[in-house]
Structure formats: structure tokens, C-alpha cells
Amino acid sequence: MRYFSCQYFREVLQNFTMKNLALYSTVAVLLALADATYGLKKEDCEVCMTVVEKFANTLTPDVRSDTKKIEAEFRKFCKTSKNKENRFCYYLGGLEDSATGILGELSKPLSWSMPADKVCEKLKKKDSQICDLRYDKTIDLRTVDLKKLKVRDLRKILSDWDETCEGCIEKLDFIAKIEELKPQYMSHQEL
């Protein structure tokens, strides 16, 4: 029967951990490279990328260089936002009623002229809800049968037009209001 010394076990353990360390290091480097090459795509974070691009295009060179000015401009930008873009502004702290504020995570990268996809990656690390926002599907009023839509969708059509339906109770009331306003909001070619 052969006896193994403590020194032998130490050497085996050291060799085992050195091999594992090298393997784990290689895997970590490969994952980091994969993450860098496969960054966020527009469809992965569509609202964030759209809003950041739209906002960045409104900035003048003197505003772009100052993070405080960028934050002030973003707050102004958010006052006119609607729907998902308004929710994005809420998450970042661009609205007065926002519960949190991570505007610095937007303003600093924009002051460095960082592209929208990279800005959104940084924002996603701070708040994953930011990339969960998706735009609603648009309803083609030329082809859709309004009777088959839900009341929620009919209300959304009116909301998109900045219209209300006072006294509307039934689904048919909403449909009548949309039919009444359709010529006003759609060009003659679309009708």
C-alpha cells in the first residue's frame, strides 16, 4: 500500500487549481469579447435607442459639452413625450414625478459623444426596465375592422390623435367618434 504525503496532495491541488484558473480566465475573456461584439441591437432596446438618438440630435454643440445643460434639456424634451417615451423619461428621472433619477448616466456619455446603443447598454445596467419598453404596434386604419378592436385600442387611436370621446360608454360610441374624426386625421389618399 502506497502512502501519499501532504506535499503530494498540495502539488496535485495546486496543479488542479492552476488549470481551472486558466480555463476560467479564458472563458471570461471570451465572454467579454462576445459581449463587446454583440452589443445591444435596436430591437432589444428600441424605445431607449430611439429616444436617445432623437434627443442627441436636438443638442447644440455648446449644450452637448455640459452635463448639467444636457440634463436640463432632457427635462424639457420629456415634457412633450408621450406613451412609452414618457415612461422612459420617468425611469431616467426626466419628469417631475419620477421616483428615481439616473440622468447622469445619460448626460455624461452624451457629453462624450457616445453612440445611443452604448448609452442604452449603460442605462440597462442601472435599470433593466429601460430595455423592457417596446413601442405599441400601429393600427392601420385603412384596413382594420374597428368592430373587431378592443375598446382599449379604440381609446388609443383617439389618444394618439389627442382627442377624447366625451360621453362614450359603448364600443359603438368610440367607433362612431373615430369614423367622424377619420377624415380630419387621415389624408384623402389614405382613406
Salient structural properties:
single chain, 191 residues
The shape, in one word, is elongated
End-to-end distance:
94 Å
Low-confidence stretches: none
Q: How much helical structure, as a percent, in the residues?
A: 55-70%
Topology, pairings included?
Blueprint: H1 6-37, H2 46-58, H3 61-64, H4 67-79, H5 83-92, H6 104-111, H7 116-126, H8 151-160, H9 171-185
Helix pairs in contact: 2-7, 4-6, 6-7, 8-9
Explained architecture:
By secondary structure, this protein is mainly α. Helix content is 61%, strand content 0%. The chain is built from 9 helices and no strands. The chain has helices at residues 6-37, 46-58, 61-64, 67-79, 83-92, 104-111, 116-126, 151-160, 171-185. Helix 4 crosses helix 6, helix 6 packs antiparallel against helix 7 (116-126) and helix 8 (151-160) runs parallel beside helix 9. The longest helix is centred in the first third of the chain and has 32 residues, at 6-37. The radius of gyration is 27 Å and the shape is elongated. It starts with 5 loop residues before the first helix and ends in a 6-residue tail after the last helix. The model has no long low-confidence stretch (mean pLDDT 84).
